[in-house]
Amino acid sequence: MWFRRKSESAWAQDSEATAAAAAAPAAKEKLGWFEKRARRRRRRIVFEEVLGWILVPTFLYLMWLAYQAVGGVPKEIVDFGNELLGLALKSF
Fold first, then answer.
1. What distance in Å separates the CA atoms of residue 47 and residue 55, rounded to the nearest whole number?
2. pTM of the model as a whole
3. Which of 2, 15, 81, 82 makes the best surface tag, with the fewest CB within 10 Å?
């Protein structure tokens, strides 16, 4: 009772209101079905691109390792390819 709090000045009240407004979270953007679909599509395309940049070099490296492990292309595979090519050329 003896120690009453003084009323705050107008400047202090304005700064508090500004601070409270800045601290309040912004309202989330409401998306329609078209925008949701576009975001899903964009997300999927980016995911596929990243996956492709990882998997394609991996497959090529594994194929190179298999080639090195076998010691080259086996003669039977080369002969089979030549037979297929010969059959394909004879049909024309």
1. 12
2. 0.47
3. 2
